[in-house]
Write a structure and sequence with these properties.
The chain is α+β, with helices and mostly antiparallel strands and 153 residues long. The chain is built from three helices and ten strands; from the N terminus they run H-E-E-E-E-E-E-H-E-E-E-E-H.
């Protein structure tokens, strides 16, 4: 099997970086909150992820802390032993998403050939927006999109 050909970039393109940040900023106002994905573990623990949608595609998910009723920072999923209200979670995260902002910085992920722009709320990074290498298009999380569609149907 022949490995895929990787594009080799000779220099860092700051124009595409600026475009990527601008694209993420423009898109943020159109993000919506999807149906929370509530998982129950074998010991009764509950874990909540809230997908953030752009049109019909998931961009990323926000870890939600049902005890504090706020997002948990990226990389810190929360598990609780209590009941959760899906509609209440959705309403709270809608408000949080309106208060969220794009951090004017990025990392580049070679496997995706994309810029990754952090989104913050109250000084916490709560999600990421992936933008094409040229800074022009959002790149959905296709795996999460499939999960959202399975969860809703």
């Amino acid at each position: 099997m022949i490995p895929p050909v990787k594009r080799k970039r000779e220099h860092l393109d700051f124009n595409s970086l600026s475009k990527a940040i601008s694209t993420a900023k423009s898109a943020l106002q159109f993000f919506t909150v999807g149906v929370p994905i509530i998982r129950r573990g074998p010991k009764g623990e509950v874990h909540v992820d809230v997908p953030v949608m752009y049109t019909d595609f998931a961009i990323d998910k926000i870890h939600y802390d049902p005890r504090s009723k706020i997002p948990s920072p990226k990389g810190r999923p929360v598990r609780v032993y209590s009941d959760v209200n899906s509609q209440e979670i959705r309403e709270i995260v809608e408000g949080i998403l309106k208060e969220s902002y794009i951090i004017e910085a990025a990392e580049f992920r070679e496997p995706d050939d994309a810029w990754v722009i952090p989104v913050a709320w109250n000084k916490l990074i709560i999600m990421y927006v992936r933008v094409s290498h040229d800074g022009e298009e959002l790149i959905p999380d296709y795996g999460l999109t499939k999960e959202v569609r399975r969860h809703v149907n």
